[in-house]
């Protein structure tokens, strides 16, 4: 796995996370139609969608389970971003075929981006699944399941221009009770040439801000202390009231969420360098509870590569945005996504990426070797001409540099005191808590009587690796 993962696991909108299963308390046992097991892959949007799916299925009297062997229905919420992501899913689907041989009534469904991209293929040609539902078809799941029960094909891959699931209250599966994700928009209109997302998720649409505010306020009431606003490109959030001229842009939304309560932390992901405005940065500066952390994927540090990627900014523009962040939010950490070996990337262009990383001094990055995706602009227009070994070697150079940058970034925190939101027990040591500071850095520290998850504590950092800080409550 190429990703530089944090020791305690990152919760960003990123990085091919490997199938995590969900569980939630069930509805009335007497009316239960069956038990479903859902596993999510890909970005945080998918994990967030699985909570919507669980909510819809619960309403339709399906009960969730975290044990796949107990399930009557297995759902995989899938990712198509790189070829490897799809291979993982196929392997998993073949395992379920073996399970099905022992348990004929078992139904297997595929959701998410791979369902959308491959449409009928997994159902009709490869016969690996019984049900296919794309990202905009989840309301239709109960009907589709009914069709499957009658021996018919359950497939819906229509993409919508309106669906935002605004009225559905996500079932917070496996929640830690402290941090939650809120989807604020769906789809993407950007057409970066390497990217499959516009094809699998459809057109960009923004969710009604009043439903977002209600969801955030409800989470706060239930004890949650951090919300992350999710979208492929949150800076282009724009909602127009259907009955009057009221328009809400991202800065306005951010501010309204921040005003819910001073001790509710607000994060967001992902920001597109072409769209992040000074207005958003000033809104952050005005509200200390909007976290000092921006995920600003650069993809490449070379302007020609950026042009072929159709990112619509060049390296000077990106550097200017980094400078604006430093000017307006001096304490803000910046992270990135980087692709190595994109079509036509020369050694010099690769060095521009390394140079950009040094310029931006990223606190962390998600790093990938380019993987050509069928149907994308790049697949149609450019040759995938960087040899696989070169892509890997460049990726390793990028990873090595990022490790150094993360280490330096973290070492500079030693001796500093941060306000940390306690998220729960450290994975490795039940006598320690883990939590994040405003810069999104995970800090592990020994528990102290009287503190529990959801509390804010002051922690002084005493040591640091490239992935985690360690400290003590003061
Ligand atoms: N909307 C987000 C990114 C979503 S995809 C943004 O614009 O930043 C997450 C990351 O996967 C991308 O930022 C990119 O770095 C990587 N990625 C996307 N398509 C890829 C491909 N074909 N090959 C390798 N990496 C890819
Ligand atoms: Fe893909 Fe670009 Fe949209 Fe991100 S902004 S989802 S990389 S098309
Ligand atoms: Fe996310 Fe993967 Fe789809 S990154 S939007 S789940 S292709």
In short:
The protein is an alpha/beta fold.
What does this structure look like?
By secondary structure, this protein is an alpha/beta fold. Among the domains are: 17-156, Methylthiotransferase, N-terminal domain (Rossmann fold, 3-Layer(aba) Sandwich); 417-473, OB fold (Dihydrolipoamide Acetyltransferase, E2P) (Beta Barrel). It is built from 14 helices and 22 strands. The strands form 6 sheets. Strands 1, 2, 3, 4, 5, 6 and 7 form a 7-stranded mixed β-sheet that branches. A 5-stranded mixed beta barrel has the order 18-19-20-22-21. A 3-stranded parallel β-sheet has the order 8-11-14, sandwiched between helices. A hairpin with a 5-residue loop joins β19 and β20. α8 (250-258) runs parallel beside α9 (278-286) and α12 packs parallel to α14 (388-411). The chain starts with 16 loop residues before the first strand and ends with a strand. Residues 1-16 have low confidence and may be disordered. The chain binds S-adenosyl-L-homocysteine, iron/sulfur cluster (SF4) and FE3-S4 cluster. Iron/sulfur cluster is lined by residues 188, 190-192, 195, 197-198, 232-233, 272.
